[in-house]
Amino acid sequence: QVQLVESGGGLVQAGGSLRLSCTASGRTFSNYGMGWFRQAPGKVREFVARISWNGDSTYYADAVKGRFTISRDNAKNTVYLQMNSLKPEDTAVYYCAARYGMNPYDSWGQGTQVTVSS
Length: 118
Description:
The chain is mainly β. Helices cover 0% and strands 53% of the residues. It is built from no helices and 11 strands. Strands 2, 4, 5, 6, 9, 10 and 11 form a 7-stranded mixed sheet that branches. It is globular and about 40 Å long.
């Protein structure tokens, strides 16, 4: 498994932007596909976005498509989630996760809180 640490969460007004970062250690980062997930209070964890090991392929949940952008820098062992046009419904704890190949995500960070005020 790879160890993951998220950062960049905070409080922002609706319409604002935040950039989340997730830094990996312990394994060869470029071997792993990466994903972002979120969990709002009282709700199940949901998929947000994913990116392939080399960054060539990305995929987004419909709820964030056109507003969020996932990217990675393998030289820095870091994956990012740029979040624009934030809405109150984006309020959640955001987690990054790693998976090897097409296996299930099996490494998770501790999460970072994002709160969007109306």
